[in-house]
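Batch 3, record 17
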Amino acid sequence: MHEIRSQKATETALQNLISQVRNGYVDNAPLVVGIHTGGAWIAARLCEALEWDEPATLDISLYRDDFETSGLKRSGTTNRMPQQLNGENILLIDDVLFTGRTIRAALNVLFDYGRPGAINLGILFDRGGRELPIEPTFLGESLGEEGAGRCKLIGPEPLVLMTPDSE
Amino acid sequence: MHGPAALQLTPDGRLKHLLTTEGLPKSLITELLDTAETFLSSQGQPVKKVPLLRGKTVVNLFFENSTRTRTTFDIAAHRLSADVVTLDIRTSSASKGETLFDTLKNLEAMQADLFVVRHSAGGAPFFIADRVTPNIAVINAGDGTHAHPTQALLDLMTIRKHKGDPANLSVAIVGDLKHSRVSRSLIHGLRGMGCPDIRAIGPGTLLPSDLGYLGVRTFHCIDDGLRDVDVVVLLRLQKERMTSALLPSEREFFNLYGMTESRLKLAKENAIVMHPGPINRGVEIANEVADGPQAVILDQVTNGIAIRMAVMAMTLSTQQGGHS
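Prediction for the assembled complex:
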């Protein structure tokens, strides 16, 4: 297990993401939804910095597409989601974007809450390796070549991007 | 672990079937309850269905009549997006003389992924789990007077939600424990969770003789047994017990063991009252208790769906060879 992005570098990426989001929503704050668990940490930091309401958190484990191969992976609970979505503009937040499958699952969860309005995607680190046509609207940092290996955001305080335990 | 309980676990201790709560370790019960909590949150969505078990086939094998349990298993499987087939075996092959083993082999040939089994003979789900081809999960939905593990788990979930860790609680079970698979499974589940004080309250004719071995204290006087408990579990009094001369009458039972407001005052102030349903008002429970603030009976029903979703997802997850 070693650092890919130090606490300082992670903080720089986060500040970059926050400033993009600030410029992206000049008039109305969106409903911020953080995907468990890393996305929820980022969403909380973002809302705090922009003085927005506390974000909703989303557990996507029941919508994953790898049950056949990986079984049930519980991540957390869904909190503060409105009873029903009806045209709300949503900013979906996750820590690391890779194949895009997690975001696909999250979009499906959101549509099970009703009919959201526009959905934007905020990502802290982009690893590349996309398997679906999903791209971030706001991005903290693209890892480029360094994104080839697996990684995991450790947090919530301090935030550091590490390789997984076994490596 | 050894004995029949070992059949439900993989060598590395994961749940492959759910047959009994006897011998289930606390960590596994806790994982089941936590998973059920996850499902409970999805049950608040406008669309309650999640795509987890899409493409899987769940076969409800009900060799014994049960509308309520079967319905909750049906709903649970549907909400996981599985395909559900319900076979009322009493009216089909068994009555034509087919053995349980042959029925089983036929259903396997139809590429089922999970069997939910209810049978009037104790041990039938074990027989099935022992003989199914690998990759098929078996869930016991009640066998004879032996076990009803999903009911016990939903009871534990309800207890934990309202009163916290069972390791700090006193629980009284009232009524016909002798013929109750619900109470047997709940006692094993409570023991697994480390509950230090389990009490059985009922007339001698309706209490099994082996409760002492399970660490359960027995009371024939309800007023003594209810004192300072956190949880009261009432059991349904089955009418057929009357004909076998174990009880003089329903009214007599209510007078001696019925849960009334004044008796409930003997328990702790915020004690909860549970019942597996269907309730017999005026037999096990007075109207004012059934409709009162301490009754959590309908919460048990809601939790029952989440628990059954969790058990299906976890057993199938293990059968897929997945690691959670």
